[in-house]
Model the fold of this input.
Amino acid sequence: MDKAFAYICASAETAPRILKRYCRTVYELGYVPICPTLSDTQYLSDESPDELRDLHSIALQKLARCRMLVVCGKEVSHGMSVEIGFAEKRHIICTTLAGLAKIQEDLDGAAE
Done:
């Protein structure tokens, strides 16, 4: 069965272990987590201005292909606001991790 892509929107300062936990939760809820902050920094450096621009560009290209954006964390950074605005302009569903869990809980309850 095909699963929808869910873009993980988190602060660039979020520790990789936390990002992995967000991705795992999204996966367990039945979605394919897309987390550029975690994956793209494996081959691009945020210390190079050119590569930092590429990181942002690649992230937005990935977001454009996702069905939803999942806001993770307690605070919304400037970069996260940019991603949320991008998603809203393209009518991509925006929710929080807790909201996504609630949706799944409601769906599971309706199936019973």
User: Anything to note?
Assistant: The chain has five helices and four strands.
